[in-house]
Amino acid sequence: MGAPRIAVLAAAGRGRRIHPRSENVPKVLLPVAGKPLLVRNLELLRDALGIRRFLCVVGHLGEQVRAALGDGQQFGVELRYVESLDVDGGLGTVFATVEPHIAEPFVLILGDELYLGSNHAALAAVAEPYVAVCALSPSDDPELIGKNYSVHLDGDRITAAVEKPAQPLSPYIGCGTFVFAPEIFADARAVAAEGRPRFEITDAIDHAARRGAAVRAFVLTGDYLNVNSVEDLSTANFLARSAELPSSRVSLIVPAYNEAASIARVVREFLPHVDELLVMDNCSADGTGELARAAGATVLSRPLRGYGDALRQGMDAAQGDILVLVEADGTFSARDLGKLLEYLKDADMVIGTRTTRQMIHQGANMDGLLRWGNVVVSKLIEALWWDCEPRLTDVGCTYRAIWQDAYRRVRPYLTQDDATFSPELMIEVLRSQLRLIEVPVHYFRRRGGESKHSASRWHSMKTGMRMIALILRKRLNFS
User: Could you give the CA distance from residue 252 to residue 245 in angstroms, rounded to a whole number?
Assistant: First the structure.
């Protein structure tokens, strides 16, 4: 038969178990580490097996899938679409949907599964002949196996397949990668004729195996996850982000205006720990830019409209995969950078909190009123976006880290030029259904100058009121 030249992307399901994430976005387009699951699987088959012809089965919110993938040109492939004949009838209905369009061996992959570091390339060498090949992932967890399907094995031959078994038939999770010969369509038609209330892909595979046809097992390497729930999506992001983190470039952005007393020390402290350090110098008159440049920073000196504008322009200019924000006044320490980066395995953005009393150092500008003011305003965000499950205690902490792809996703909605940029970035991450985690960081006294937003109680109150006004506008969709 030879190696398959065409692949089917199954992307028609409603994704009910991951509701409400799938209410307005198809589950297969939910991003994992910034890239939709469906795109990941298309690229996997393209790169591992050299497949350039794809047939995508769409149904629920299919117009979004068409808009996201187009004709495949952006991925270097040819992509056509067919409408599912029965979105709610089970995955087995995919056979009747694609049969009129395929007359040769093909790969079928479910669009809502994650594969990392897999050996899909070896599928091309599976022994022939076969009617079906099922990819399996080793597991001794009966609960995980029970969420997918299980197979009975005789060597590398599959003699039976059971969907969501009460007891596993073998120590493998049945995965959503298959290779089929056109002969499988006859088995699918035979099963469909039985009039089952729900028809699964494994029903056709089981039918072929029980009649003695060659149904082979293919054991996958690497990480595998079937993304069915919000918890699964978080786990998928953790696996993908963990794999990416060691090779990710980190850019540090430092907004500065007349910070000559502290900027060189901040640059020297953080520079060994990042790949790029940008100082956004608002045309300081005290030599801040020159001192930062001499210490090793890249300095962008230009007129800026304020704190938010400085951070936004710095993030726009940064080249790193991870963007970290920090103050120029020495109130934050590089000792906490590793903590923020570690938690980025589990989140799209990690923000520091300065409200943990044990980590507020002597002389830091965080008295009881300011600390509790930050807590109260943060809890307002938490309450208004309760369905996003944030847990927040500090609305104004600059020290935070965000993945570049997450920043690009929220960038069109970031408009604030002053201190209200801090809560705005938090809110837009939540509104985009991205994951935000808060961690305690050390907070030190300023090394020079004075705060532009909390130099006095009056300044702090004005800043807090502007933040509250922004939060309410965002909740009411007025901005």
Answer: 16
